[in-house]
Amino acid sequence: MTQNGRTSLTVQQEKAVLVCAEWPERRSADGEALEELRGLALSAGAVVVGTLVQRLDRPVPGTYIGSGKLQELVQLVRQSGADVVIFDNDLTPAQTRNLELATGVKVLDRTELILDIFATRARTVEARLQVELAQLEYSLPRLRHMWKHLSRIKGGIGMRGPGETQLEEDRRLAAARIRDLKRRLHGILARRQRQVLERQDEFTVSLVGYTNAGKSTLMRALTGADVPVADQLFSTLDTRTRQWRLGGGVKVLLSDTVGFIRHLPHHLVASFRATLEEARQARLLLHVVDASSPRMEEQIASVNEVLADIGCDRKAILLVLNKVDRLSDPLTWQLLHHRYPQAILVSARTGFGLEELREAVRNRLAHEMLEAEIEAPASNGRVLAWLHRHGEVHRQEILDDRIRIWCHLPAHALQQLTDPGIVIRTSPRDGTDS
User: How far apart are CA 422 and CA 434, in angstroms?
Assistant: First the structure.
């Protein structure tokens, strides 16, 4: 794969020309799509040396952009000395081939660029497997374009036959690797699902949101967890779960997830199903939004679209408008309060609004909390330890060979108390008998 410098998908330290072609169904506000593409290119390590924008009624079948814009692109590549052209669109293999022949440099589309960023960010074995699967599934139908050498390989023992081409061999190997990756990821998903099920007695909260909305910074501020924080797109690919103390003895499990983005490739969502399992099983989602972004509303819509794709659109969701420390205009604050009256305004960086966020989550949790009076054999020390771990114990007393405990804990947690000899009497938090 050496033609046009296409020895790999990476754009690290390469000079890039960005192309944004829009048609009515995918039209954004002026400059928004191009600015996001610029952010993606910079995250991948590219140096942007030129940009090109075209608005058209529909993509051109052969080259995506029109002939006039194509000539303009060729000139821009030559004048800027670009090494790569990056489209904010998904290209067909034929379009990529035609564009590379015309420009003489490597051409990447939006999905390739996102996959390249994911490949550089992946740290755990799980993340690397997910990225590799997504890359292979993207590349498999494009192998004819990626491999220019179709020379015959010799037959012999262990070969399918003397007529197999290198292309066919690569397809077979890629398909086998995809099957192996899916098998291994299926095992990881099963293990992740078991881990989530084991935490059913806990109230779980998951952070979701657009990439670079500040989810990791918020998680560090809320839990004190030493999670990596970076001002870049897709800095988090792996799910992290930490204990979050809400006050009053109430504790929940808080998970951080991979950030979403506009037009996130569906097969990429599928590949990261195991990572997104925490969000799928969470009792409450905190949708974190960068309130300082001019594309805030579009980003909210993009996240809601991905949540629907993974079956989370019917979950309880609390909107959290982050980075309000960047808003200097009081009118902007008033507009946010008016447009999103149920949202919580916070700054993970300064700590503003975090107590209000804790109170909002406590209120969401309140309807699941019960005041319970529990009796158990005094010899069963496990019960008392369990109640201290999962709830708030008010007082306790020992009556002969029995222990009586008054506590406050989530209703679903009581289902775990199945030991013989345990008696449970409950009432809602407001004191009404149940």
Answer: 18
Alpha-carbon gap, residue 302 to 291, rounded angstroms: 15
Give the position of tokens 């995250």: 43
d(Cα 16, Cα 154) in Å, to the nearest integer? 40
DSSP 331: H
- Using CA atoms, how far residue 317 sits from 173, 240, 279, 425, in Å, is 43, 19, 11, 31
Read off the pLDDT of residues 288-320 as tens digits, 9 standing for 90 and up: 999 998 889 988 998 998 888 888 878 889 999
Q: What is the CA radius of gyration of the chain?
A: 27
Measured CA to CA, the distance from residue 104 to residue 95 in angstroms comes to 14
- What pLDDT was estimated at residue 31? 62
Residue partners of 211: CB distance under 8 A and separation at least 6:
233, 234, 259, 260, 261
Note if the pTM is more than 0.70: yes
Return the amino acid letter for 371.
Answer: E
User: What is the β-pairing status of strands 423-428 and 369-377?
Assistant: antiparallel
Q: Please report where in the chains the tokens 């006039």 appear, as a residue.
A: 68
Strand order in the sheet with 106-108: 47-55, 15-22, 84-87, 106-108
The count of other CB atoms within 10 Å of the CB of residue 249 is 14
Q: Which residues lie closer than 8 Å to 372 by C-beta, 6 or more apart?
A: 391, 406, 407, 408, 409, 414, 424, 425, 426
Going by the DSSP 8-state scheme, the letter that residue 214 receives in this structure is: S
DSSP code, position 5: G
- What's the CA gap between 100 and 113, in Å, rounded? 16
Whether residue 210 contacts residue 290, with contact meaning beta carbons closer than 8 Å, is answered with yes
Tell me the H-state helices in 81-124. Answer: 93-103, 110-121
Q: 317-322 and 369-377 as β-strands: parallel, antiparallel, unpaired?
A: unpaired
| Half-sphere exposure for 199 (CA within 13 Å, toward CB) | 22
Angle between the N-to-C axes of helices 32-43 and 110-121, in degrees from 0 to 180, rounded to the nearest 10:
40
> How many Cβ atoms sit within 10 Å of the Cβ of residue 184?
14
Contact 294, 326 (CB under 8 A): no
pLDDT band at residue 149 using 50, 70 and 90 as cut-offs? very low
HEC string for 269-295:
HHHCCCCCHHHHHCCEEEEEEECCCCC
- Give the number of residues written for the chain: 434
